[in-house]
């Protein structure tokens, strides 16, 4: 009987508990819209303090079972501020309007290969640029060129001013000496190639190295207007999840996607023009100065000129006087660089869809003429992004991009008497020589140099054509979703196929060709075929106390397959432009194949948005390493503390206060072919054979690695009208791979080593202000400040400038500049890796540093009613430049500042530049056909304040790799651009 009473009591208690449970929750429905009453799809809604949540549908509606003890709903949505709404059991419906997230604290940032996190919870310094920030002010030629001054920790150098771009990006300093210093770039999950492809023009011009040919990097293929967001993982603590490829940082690009609902159409047209930023100028001569300069030039400065020299000076003086009388004193700098190139950029976008399928179709055509006649760039792109919900559990997304572009880049940069480089030629050309063709179309020879710049402009070719396909596919399978846990699998695949054709043609009549090559034709046909895939599982678990665990793990695979073919013909039959119509033919093919495999595990813990921690590790193996089956580990860990989320925080003045710390490691393998000593084919007397290449391979190479420790703090004040993000980092790059010369007795020219260590450390501060925020007026300003310092901490097994057994003496790295006689980089323990060195009294001496003392970007955006205006200023302080353009023009007696007594070839490259500025007006319309019309004007590189004496302090003669920045040799000058814009929405 007692037993039965106990069982009955338990049943009654259970029934009472069940009844209480039923009463202790209620159903709540509602809608979520923005300030314009537009429904918001996919808003995350969570009952505070519980694991009960949902998301809004295509109409912005939701239904949620709310526990009675939940007093608030927490709503999160990308682009909008996190919002808390009070609720209680007496409510059955609620309508909620989300406010725009002006501080980006609710912005979603990538933290893993298949997971993301709100910026307010982020423990790393990840810079994000929206599509509006990237292209909203003015038309952008390339994606990397659009980043100038817009984020901290990013140093951008223009490698060529030619249409079609050419830029080098450095994130938090130098990452490699001989390897890649450009970041890994991922577009919609596709690991894209950013290669610079040689066109062989150095074989005609005599340039020392293919990096001096002024090629563009292939990020130029991406249409900036297609981009929704760019996330820049600047250091190893954020980029470790990407492993071996992430030593120089990672840029993650997400393109725009369609939205469900009404089909929307937008068309934008930009019309503008290019002009040179500044000219160096040409020296003005009097008749007597011509005589004095040219007799002194050819004579002994300490002795009177000879009779023959005087006679030569008089002849030059007579030539000058006759040209003056005819009115034939030309400004050849203006003749070559004085064009106003027309720019047209047309863009069409169509987007829409249903609750199951969303699409975006875009097309763009950019046609840009250069500041040199005959140079230009055309790019046609089309994109189709489709997202389809196959079922409640499966979603698939496809991103397809096709690019066709062509560029005529002219001839600039370094050469050795090839007569092609405009700057080289201008340095030695007298403005009183008439170099224009006669009535028969015959160009005269240049009496003082090996080439006629007018003939180079009119009769030579340096062109490239690109066909490229980028395809990304993402499939998400939601295995299950319960009240407090979920499991999903993310499969991602990417393909990058690029076909590149280059052509360089110099006619046999060209001055430097006669009696030497007698005509030059070089054609390249190059294939890049890369693909990647990853399979990641993500498990989320929520406790009733508000703790969220996110566990992920999976595998990745990358394959890079390149086939570069170059054909060259000299001794051309007159008037022929065919590879078969020449007496000396040469063919060269470079094949390389790289495979990499890795797996990753990561755990994230979020305790009520108060404490956020992440630990993870990636294991990678690569065919570029000595042991292709050996896995290398790249760990990461981070912590952040949101003090304002704690109950004890009771001030409204400080709305965010988040200290954070992070650590991570990344790597970079050697370039293809460095594991072995290659053989070069030869044919002697009809017998084929091979000779040993000059570079000695090393079969036991391991990747260079970066280890970074980052400290930071994020502060928000006055409802986040003031935001401060500050980070200090220490990044050690160990076992750098580098080439070092060997004595000729070894049988090799150089060897690859990896016994060099480097430290980068720096400070990054971003201050965002939104002091005016009303319904009619909004003013926002962002101030970015950053610097980086480097030091070589180890050189050789024991280090120390050649002291001790096994140590490596200081040395000039190959292919970075032009030796200690003119100025170069120099690897010396205890010195910065970015230092410029010269021989001073026969002793290598550091005389400059290419690393800026600091950089400062100041962006401003003002909206008043239908008017909007913006301006971006960029200040770079310090950053010395090796100015060999001035050196050449000094030799040629053409420098207009010859009497300024600037000592040496090293100049200060500081500048202050108005990088971008714009004014737009939204025209109010009541048309049923046109929903919006916007007109405006804008400009890029509008003015520059600098003491630098040459064309532009942003320069690199050696392309985007290695230590190339801030070495100038007669570049293709940079341009300023002005635009008129009109855009319509339908």
Automatic annotation (TrEMBL):
<keyword id="KW-0798">TonB box</keyword>
<feature type="signal peptide">
    <location>
        <begin position="1"/>
        <end position="24"/>
    </location>
</feature>
<dbReference type="InterPro" id="IPR023997">
    <property type="entry name" value="TonB-dep_OMP_SusC/RagA_CS"/>
</dbReference>
<dbReference type="InterPro" id="IPR039426">
    <property type="entry name" value="TonB-dep_rcpt-like"/>
</dbReference>
<keyword id="KW-0998">Cell outer membrane</keyword>
<comment type="similarity">
    <text>Belongs to the TonB-dependent receptor family.</text>
</comment>
<keyword id="KW-0472">Membrane</keyword>
<keyword id="KW-0812">Transmembrane</keyword>
<dbReference type="InterPro" id="IPR023996">
    <property type="entry name" value="TonB-dep_OMP_SusC/RagA"/>
</dbReference>
<dbReference type="InterPro" id="IPR000531">
    <property type="entry name" value="Beta-barrel_TonB"/>
</dbReference>
<feature type="domain" description="TonB-dependent receptor-like beta-barrel">
    <location>
        <begin position="412"/>
        <end position="942"/>
    </location>
</feature>
<protein>
    <submittedName>
        <fullName>TonB-linked SusC/RagA family outer membrane protein</fullName>
    </submittedName>
</protein>
<feature type="domain" description="TonB-dependent receptor plug">
    <location>
        <begin position="120"/>
        <end position="250"/>
    </location>
</feature>
<dbReference type="InterPro" id="IPR008969">
    <property type="entry name" value="CarboxyPept-like_regulatory"/>
</dbReference>
<dbReference type="InterPro" id="IPR036942">
    <property type="entry name" value="Beta-barrel_TonB_sf"/>
</dbReference>
<dbReference type="Pfam" id="PF07715">
    <property type="entry name" value="Plug"/>
</dbReference>
<keyword id="KW-1134">Transmembrane beta strand</keyword>
<keyword id="KW-0813">Transport</keyword>
<keyword id="KW-0675">Receptor</keyword>
<dbReference type="Pfam" id="PF00593">
    <property type="entry name" value="TonB_dep_Rec_b-barrel"/>
</dbReference>
<dbReference type="Pfam" id="PF13715">
    <property type="entry name" value="CarbopepD_reg_2"/>
</dbReference>
<dbReference type="InterPro" id="IPR012910">
    <property type="entry name" value="Plug_dom"/>
</dbReference>
<keyword id="KW-0732">Signal</keyword>
<dbReference type="InterPro" id="IPR037066">
    <property type="entry name" value="Plug_dom_sf"/>
</dbReference>
